[in-house]
Write a structure and sequence with these properties.
mainly alpha, NADH dehydrogenase (Ubiquinone) complex I, assembly factor 6, mitochondrion inner membrane, 295 residues, 58% helix, two-stranded antiparallel sheet, Isoprenoid_synthase_dom_sf, 12 helices, membrane
Length: 295
């Protein structure tokens, strides 16, 4: 299981950072297209001189991993890379689909590689992948703003609701970044969607087989991001978000991961997070944690 998880996550990192490390977007897109072709070669048992591709090929040769999940992940990133900066998603559902295509598919593949056949585990992986993908998009907003002064991952429907949507000279929708309060409101709304997916995953905790628990550990860093966003009033530009790992000391973060990967006991903890009053949003939001992913 560990070997498969490392290979699949390394593959995900390679494709996720392809556009970020490229000096030219065209080079980043070429990397993604290379991975799209590499997947076909791997399943055709052709040798590829690339360490991550070789690790992935080893996993695929030993286990039954669905090719469509890997292709779907890369193709989603290719489509995202081809988007114009001004091409803003219309709805949160579009971002949820992107999160599932890029994050949930890796969890599906890891479950398959581990020989875990469980509908409950698949459903939990779907929700955790969506939650993880959404919060990572939120965390990336300052990075994208620093590169091109745009927020490509705030949907039109959310931006319009919170007074962030404007039209440029060409009539194209654009997210303005000078309204910090409106931005915090928008981030809160999207974070609430991510939290809802975590709650749905937790509701399945009692039916998920124990061997699937380590695969679903990405719920932990997702919860850490949500908790940190809550502490900074959902201000993605707050400098505390850049400290350590997601605002948590690196050693403590690693200890939490190790503890929850070792224990086989499902715990039920009710913890309350203070959320600021934002329009019609509640002052308090209760997190129901019914698994080993959170203290």
């Amino acid at each position: 299981m560990r070997k498969s998880a490392f290979a699949l996550r390394a593959f995900n990192v390679e494709t996720a950072r392809a556009m970020d490390i490229a000096s030219d977007p065209r080079i980043g897109l070429m990397r993604l297209l290379w991975w799209q072709e590499a997947i076909d070669k791997i399943f055709s048992k052709k040798l590829i001189e690339h360490p991550v591709a070789q690790a992935l090929a080893s996993v695929i040769s030993e286990h039954k991993v669905n090719k469509s999940w890997l292709k779907r992940s890369v193709e989603a990133r290719i489509n995202d890379a081809k988007r114009e900066v001004s091409d803003i998603p219309e709805t949160v559902e579009e971002l949820e689909r992107y999160a599932e295509d890029t994050m949930s598919t890796i969890l599906y593949s890891t479950l398959q590689a581990g020989g875990i056949r469980s509908t409950a585990a698949d459903h939990a992986a779907s929700h955790i992948g969506k939650a993880s993908g959404l919060v990572l998009l939120l965390k990336s907003l300052p990075y994208h703003a620093s590169r091109n002064r745009h927020f490509p991952y705030i949907p039109v429907e959310v931006a319009e609701k919170h007074g962030l949507l404007v039209k440029d000279q060409g009539g194209q929708p654009e997210i303005r970044i000078d309204s910090r309060e409106g931005l915090c409101n928008a981030v809160f709304e999207m974070a609430s969607v991510a939290n809802s997916h975590l709650e749905k995953a937790r509701a399945l905790a009692g039916t998920v087989p124990a061997e699937a628990h380590p695969v679903l550990l990405p719920a932990l860093p997702t919860q850490v991001i949500l908790d940190t966003l809550s502490r900074v009033q959902f201000d993605v530009f707050d400098p505390r978000l850049t400290r350590g790992i997601l605002g948590v000391l690196p050693l403590w973060f690693q200890l939490k991961l190790k503890w929850y990967s070792w224990t086989e006991i499902l715990k039920t903890v009710i913890c309350e997070a203070n959320f600021p009053v934002m329009g019609n949003f509640p002052f308090m939001m209760r997190f129901h944690v019914q698994e080993k992913f959170e203290e």
